[in-house]
Each structure stands twice: as C-alpha cells, then as structure tokens.
Amino acid sequence: MFKGLGQMGDMAKMMKAAQEMQQKMAALQEEMHNLMVTGESGAGLVKATCTAKGELKSLDIDPSIFNSDDKEVVEDLILAAIKDAQSKATERAQEEMSKLTEGMGLPKDMKLPF
Question: Where are the transmembrane segments (predicted)?
C-alpha cells in the first residue's frame, strides 16, 4: 500500500542529486574563466595564454622573430600558439569535468555539456 512512497523518496534523492550537480556545474563554469593554460610554438618564441574556456587572454612574442621577410612564418607561429592554447584549454576543461563527475560517482568519461 505504501510502496509508492519508496519511489517518491528515490525521486526526491534523484532531484537533490541533480540539483547538487547543477550547482557544481555552475561553479565549475565560473572556475573555467579563471583557470589559465599556455600554448606555445616555435620552441617557445610565441606563447598564447587563454582561459580553460578557450578565451585568449595574452600573447607573448619573442622580439627575435620580427623580421619583415618572415611575416608568414610569424603569423603561422602565432596561430599555432593560439591553437595549442585552445587545445590545452579543452583538455583542462575535460580534466576538471572528470574530477567533478568522479566526485559524484559518475563514470569518469561521462561527457556533460558546457
């Protein structure tokens, strides 16, 4: 007769867990704006720093590469450094998400939307 109450209790637990997950996801989203990663190219001649969300924050270029004859090379190095930083940002975001899902007892490789 009271069998339905057990299911409601399970539903309440699930709702609470979902709410906790939502709060942790929101906190992680905010943290991603503060986590910095640096990508580089040309053996460190060009460095790009971005947030774990992939937002470019700074670019550091060694002055030795500024030669008007090498304009395309410099542009390629800049793009490569930015792509490296963005790739590292994606990896960092996935690492942080894995920590969150593991902490909640979910599969480590579970992909959740950002």
Answer: none
Cα 88 to Cα 6: distance, rounded to the nearest angstrom: 46
Q: Does a structural domain hold residue 51?
A: yes
Kindly compute the dihedral angle of the four CA atoms of residues 93, 98, 99, 101, in this order, to the nearest 10 degrees: 120
Q: What CATH code is carried by the domain that includes residue 96? A: 3.30.1310.10
SS3 44: coil
pTM recorded for the entire structure: 0.66
Number of domains in the chain: 1
Q: In this structure, is residue 48 part of a structural domain?
A: yes
* pLDDT tens by residue, the chain, 114 residues: 455 556 667 888 888 888 888 888 888 888 888 999 999 999 999 999 999 988 999 999 998 888 778 888 888 999 999 999 999 999 998 888 888 777 777 666 666 554
